[in-house]
Amino acid sequence: MRLASNWVIGLSGEYMLNFPIYVGCMYGLFTESGEGHQRFWPAPKDPVMEEKDKLVLKQQWDKWWDRLVMLLANNYAIRSHQLGPGIGLAERHFSDIEGDLLRQCCIDSWPAFIEWWNMPAGGQMAMYYWEGFPRVNKYVEEYERMVGRKIKPFSLSVNLVYAGITAPIEPVTDYIIMPIDGPYLISKDWWLERFKQRY
After folding, report:
1. CB 191 within 8 A of CB 134
2. What is the mean pLDDT of residues 145-152?
3. N- to C-terminal Cα separation, the chain
4. Which positions ≥6 away from 187 have C-beta within 8 Å?
5. 47-71 burial by CB neighbour count: b if 16+ within 10 A, else e?
6. Which of 45, 65, 66 lies closest to 54, judged by CA?
7. If we measure between CA atoms, which residue out of 7, 8, 18 comes closest to residue 124?
8. DSSP string over 24-90
9. CA–CA separation, 123 vs 161, rounded Å?
10. Fewer beta carbons below 10 Å: N end or C end of the chain?
């Protein structure tokens, strides 16, 4: 969390979005590896399912992902950790996930994911590192020097994901889903351009 008297930016890398990304990577639901410098984790496995089933799984996953994104976009209390994660992750049997195939894939993927997530050098520790990396305070100070005024008041939530997307997703003006890979999170120029466009 970075804050000043007139602005606040919250960066967090929670498993609420990283687990769906993990499932998508594991079952090969994203574009071909390397396209757009997209990084995959874990490497896609070769699921034993027919192509029509894989298409069904992709449709179910897309619907799950869109639902998660819009839930977070429209509910500040959840993305600021005032409410629990919900949407399929609150219970290990994933009873609230729509689609039997996706639900089973989540059940099968969860043990490996949560083991990796909780390792001393695993996903959660990696996210702690990236949450503290962007020098947002410095970028705001530089922007204010550039324009000769204080930045306009704003509040911005940024959820970090380990892989799966190649560019930030901004469903609403105060919320961004951002990959830790690529020229965004730690790019001073990206932050300055955003400040210029918005604040």
Report:
1. yes
2. 90
3. 19
4. none
5. eeeeeeeeebbbebbeebbeebbee
6. 45
7. 18
8. HHHTT-SSPTTGGG---SSPPP--S--HHHHHHHHHHHHHHHHHHHHHHHT-HHHHTTSS---TTSS
9. 10
10. N
Q: In this predicted model, what pLDDT tens digit does every residue of 155-183 receive, in sequence order?
A: 888 889 887 788 889 888 888 998 887 78
Question: What's the whole-number mean pLDDT along residues 50-57?
Answer: 88
186 closest CA partner among 143, 150, 137, 133 = 133
DSSP string, 81-107: TSS---TTSSSTT-TTSS-HHHHHHHH
Long-range contacts from 23-26, C-beta under 8 angstroms, 24+ separation = 23/61, 23/102, 23/105, 23/106, 23/109, 23/113, 24/61, 24/65, 24/164, 25/163, 25/164, 26/105, 26/109
How many residues comprise the chain?
A: 199
**Which of 8, 2, 5, 55 shows the shortest CA–CA distance to 27?**
55
Q: Residue 174's closest CA among 163, 159, 190?
A: 159
Instruction: Please state the φ and ψ torsions of residue 13, each to the nearest 5 degrees.
Output: -120, 90
Structure tokens at 177: 């889903």
How high is the pLDDT of residue 76? Answer: 60
How far apart, in whole angstroms, are the C-alpha atoms of residue 76 and residue 73? 7
> What tokens were used for 38?
């997209």
Work out the widest C-alpha separation in the chain, in whole angstroms: 60
What mean pLDDT is predicted for residues 65-84? 70
Task: Look at residue 12 and give its three-state secondary structure.
Answer: strand
In terms of pLDDT, which residue wins out, 42 or 151? 151
